[in-house]
Amino acid sequence: MSMHAPVERKVSFATAAAYLSSTGILGILAAVQDDAQLLAWMPDSISPFALALVPTAMTFWAG
Fold first, then answer.
1. Which residue, 3, 4, 2, is CA-closest to 60?
2. In this structure, are residues 25 and 54 in contact, taking their beta carbons and an 8 Å threshold?
3. Longest dimension (CA), the chain
4. Within a 10 A sphere around the Cβ of 34, how many other Cβ atoms?
């Protein structure tokens, strides 16, 4: 039996908003900065999505 309460709708929306805004900001930064060293081992097209998972997870866990 799970002891976790269901995720509230506002937490789900905040998590989605954090992911989308972080992805957009990191995508813009990667485009502006010619040689972004955020995650050098990842392809440039994937790194903003991977990095956006950090604030998304923090928002979800804090919710």
1. 4
2. no
3. 51
4. 6
Residue pair 47/22 in contact by the 8 Å Cβ criterion: no
The encoded tokens of residue 54 equal 């950090």
Which tokens in the block code for residue 47? 């790194």
Q: How many C-beta neighbours within 10 Å does residue 13 have?
A: 11
Q: Are 24 and 16 contacting, i.e. CB atoms less than 8 angstroms apart?
A: no
> pLDDT digit string (tens) for 12-41?
888 888 888 888 877 777 777 766 565 677
**Residue type at position 1:** M
Model pTM? Answer: 0.56
Q: Over pLDDT 70: what percentage of the chain?
A: 84
Whose tokens are 């989605």? That residue is 16
Neighbours of 5 (CB within 10 A): 6
